[in-house]
C-alpha cells in the first residue's frame, strides 16, 4: 500500500515551488511545524532532461538536495518527502526515477503536469501535457514501471479552458498513487480565484471508477484551518499549500498568533544563516530578498529595515543591519 493511503485525513502537503521549496526552506518550515499539521513536503520541480545530460545536470541537481538536518526533522515528525520531476520524454523519466530510487532517499515521485509557465508549456511539458493525454498517460505508466516508489501527479483543471472531467478521466486511467489538482487553468496562471468546485469533480470521477487514491486540492489556501475546511466542504482527502507560506512561515503550527518582532528577526537570521551555510555561494543571495519582506513587517521600523534588506548582498550585510536594531 502506498504511503499516501496510510496518512490520516485530511492530508496536508507543501507544494513544490521553484527557487522556494529547497532543503533550506523545508528545514525551516519543518522545524517550527507541529507533527500533525503537515504530512508531505515536495522538492522544487526538476527537469528530467536536465538530470540526464551531464552539463545541464550540474545546474539542476541541487533541487533534489536533502541535508542531514532536514532528514532528521522528516523522521522526527513523520513527514514524507517527494521528488517532483517534469519533462516530456518517458525514457528520461525512467532513467531519473531509477537513480532516485537507487541512490536517493525519497518516499515518492510526483509528476509535474501543472506548471503554467508558457515557455515550458510550448515544449509540451507540465501543463502542456493536458493537451496531449496520450503522452501524459505513457509517461505516468513509464514512471510506475521504473521503480516501487509511489507515483503521484500534480495538475490543473484545463489548458486554455476548463476541461476537468475530460482531462482528469485520462489521468485516473493510469491510477496514480495520489492526485493533486490546482483549481485554475494553465491560461489563468495565478490570476483569479482557484475553483475548488472543479477540483471536487475529480472525487466523483474517482469514486465512479472505484479507485482508492487520495485527491488533494491546491490553490489560494492561506491557513491550516482553511485547508481543512476546504477538504471537508469539497469531500477531498487533502490540501496542498503553496504561496500561503509567503504570508505566514509559521503556517504549519496549530496555534496561530501574530509573531513578535523578536521572533520575526530570529527567523530572518536563521533563514539567512542556514541559506549561507548550505549553499555556500552556489545560489544567488538575492533569492533571500523575497523572504525578507515577510519577516520585516508588523513592527516599528520594519519598513526601513525592509528597504535596507533589499539592498543586501551577503550574510555580513544582513548581520550588520540586525546588529543596529537589536
From TrEMBL:
Question: Does the keyword tRNA processing feature in the UniProt annotation?
Answer: yes
Known catalysed reaction(s)?
A: a 5,6-dihydrouridine in tRNA + NAD(+) = a uridine in tRNA + NADH + H(+); a 5,6-dihydrouridine in tRNA + NADP(+) = a uridine in tRNA + NADPH + H(+)
Pfam family, any one: Dus
The DUS-like FMN-binding domain covers which part of the protein? 14-320
SUPFAM superfamilies given in the database record: FMN-linked oxidoreductases (SSF51395)
Q: Which domain of life is it from?
A: Bacteria
What are the alphabetically sorted keywords of the record? Flavoprotein, FMN, NADP, Oxidoreductase, RNA-binding, tRNA processing, tRNA-binding
Write the Enzyme Commission number(s) for this entry: 1.3.1.-
Protein's UniProt keywords contain Flavoprotein? yes
**Required cofactors, per record?**
FMN
Role description: Catalyzes the synthesis of 5,6-dihydrouridine (D), a modified base found in the D-loop of most tRNAs, via the reduction of the C5-C6 double bond in target uridines.
Query: Which family would the database say this protein is a member of?
Result: Belongs to the dus family.
The record's annotation in PANTHER family points to: TRNA-DIHYDROURIDINE(47) SYNTHASE [NAD(P)(+)]-LIKE
Q: What is this protein called?
A: tRNA-dihydrouridine synthase
